């Protein structure tokens, strides 16, 4: 990796971290030591090469698509970001399995990958919603309406889907 590319990548990593209001030590605390402040700092300065695997894991930790971290890509736009898609896992547990089985399994997989077992809510990405729409054989907007009617997604999710389809 060229030093210029590493510096650009580091600048993107730093920008995402600071947008989330995290210090380097805050990253270490929030990740329960999984991400050491000194390591993340060296990635941000471009002093240390980051593997594709570690970059994907860091993107997942920050809750952003990997491409947002890569140099030469522009952020999703300066306009107001679409609302987050947040699944209510407590409500999901009460939806009959014949309706929500695929969603429950998908959510469990995401929780396992992230090591996120708070059990109350789970943020998902637009890509996750598109994947779920394929699984349910519906458009993302139709699936969103079902999830809202089940009480699993907030009605604000309509704006996120409209933003994506618009």
From TrEMBL:
Domain of life: Bacteria
GO molecular function: DNA binding
GO annotation (BP), single: negative regulation of DNA-templated transcription
Protein name: Transcriptional regulator BldD
Chain ranges of the HTH cro/C1-type domain: 13-69
InterPro entries: BldD-like_C_sf, BldD_C, Cro/C1-type_HTH, Lambda_DNA-bd_dom_sf
